[in-house]
Amino acid sequence: MAVGDRLWGQEVDLAAEELMSRPKNRCLDREKAKSQKIDLSSVQELVHATGFKAFDLGLNLPKIDWSLMTSLVKRWWDTTNTFHFPSAGEVTITPGDFSLLTSLRVGGAPLRIDPQLWRREGALEWFLGKMPPLHSRGRLDVSWLSKTFMKADILTQVSVEQLTRAFLLYLLGQTLFANKDSSVHTQFLAPLRYLGAVWEFDWGSSVLASLYGNLGACSRDKSFICAGHYRVLDQLWAFEHLLQFSINTRHEDANCVPRYERWWAGQQKPRSPILSFPEWRRVLDRLTVNQVQFDPWGGISEDVPLARSRVLDRTCSLLEGPFCRAWYLVDQVASQWRPCAKAF
Fold it and tell me: Mutual orientation of helices 203-219 and 66-73 as an angle, nearest 10°?
């Protein structure tokens, strides 16, 4: 069973043995314990209201095509933050691309993290409901968050908010700021303090800057695993921009935003040709201008949420994240933003 399915079943059966092992003043009698169920729909609603619905859906994505992703990484130049294809020219993941693919806007209040939050046990217990087991100066395993979330007790308004923060932190560690250690830093709890204000922060710039930085590290062999939100690169960005990969789509609605829902809603999944790393390199080296969709967003209506985020592609911008800064250089990818300039 997929992770998202386990976490978001409408009702979670609590093991009767676990309930019986708790103090008497915290559990029901034996007959009630056997049928006790906890409704987590309110937690899911809060998660979706914060703007992270696409990442909740993204927990059930198919396996990464590492050969394709590695081939793309080898075409990345960190001096310009673009992919270089010998025949097709330069292409990149623009701010507009990122917003329309993930539903995270680029822009808003700076992401205020607190690297020293792990030192305050009382604050951590307030955020999550219990003190997490920490290692490496404030990092915790995302597996602990998953196990804790699955063992939710009877829900109150306070515990609903704590479970929501735990699940959002789990999402950040599994998707937006994923790393090889499968851990997440408690510093990201700070912007989750007020759940109604989570959407106001500039998550898009933070995640895109981290992705640029990790692509640069991998392209220079400083890292062997591409951290950050690499799923935007593999099986999302590639399927939208490289025409020969655009197969097995769920539906062809041009106004489908975020494109997570276009590619992974329902049972049909995108499939790329099964090729080895050397074969993918030869395919990318031979890409022509006609095989690259420089502007896959041309058919989107202006009324669609985040449609006007494409305007961001027309100017240079400094993307700031919790781990690095990166420039989006508009002059390097004129072929991607010129159609946008005509549309808006």
Answer: 80
CA quadruple 110, 115, 120, 125: dihedral sign: positive
The two three-digit tokens of residue 243, written as one number: 């025409």
* Angle formed at CA 147 by CA 260 and CA 127, multiple of 5 degrees: 85
Please count the CA atoms within 13 angstroms of the CA of 102 that sit on its side-chain side.
26
Q: Are 269 and 60 in contact (CB under 8 A)?
A: no
328: enclosing H helix or E strand = strand 325-328
pLDDT on residue 263: 63
Residue whose tokens read 């959407």 = 199
Q: What angle do CA 248, 64, 214 make, to 5 degrees?
A: 125
- State residue 77's pLDDT score: 93
- In contact, 68 and 207? CB cutoff 8 Å: no
User: Using an 8 Å Cβ cutoff, are 219 and 211 in contact?
Assistant: no
CA angle 12, 32, 167 (to 5 degrees): 25
End-to-end CA gap in the chain: 44
Segment holding 101, helix H or strand E: helix 95-102
Q: What is the mean pLDDT of each run of 10 residues along the chain (344 residues)?
A: 37 32 38 42 83 68 76 91 91 89 85 91 91 89 84 75 91 84 91 91 91 89 69 74 60 67 54 78 89 82 73 89 90 75 50
**Comparing C-alpha atoms, which of 312, 309, 321, 317 is closest to residue 111?**
321
Residue 56 is predicted with a pLDDT of 67
User: What are the backbone dihedrals phi and psi of residue 31, each rounded to the nearest 5 degrees, phi first?
Assistant: -65, -40
DSSP string computed for 187-220: GGGGGGSSGGGGGGB-HHHHHHHHHHHHHHHHHT
Q: Give, as one character, the DSSP assignment of residue 79.
A: T
Q: Which of 272, 244, 266, 242 has the alpha carbon at shortest distance from 253?
A: 266
Token pair recorded at residue 229: 């939100």
- pTM equals 0.80
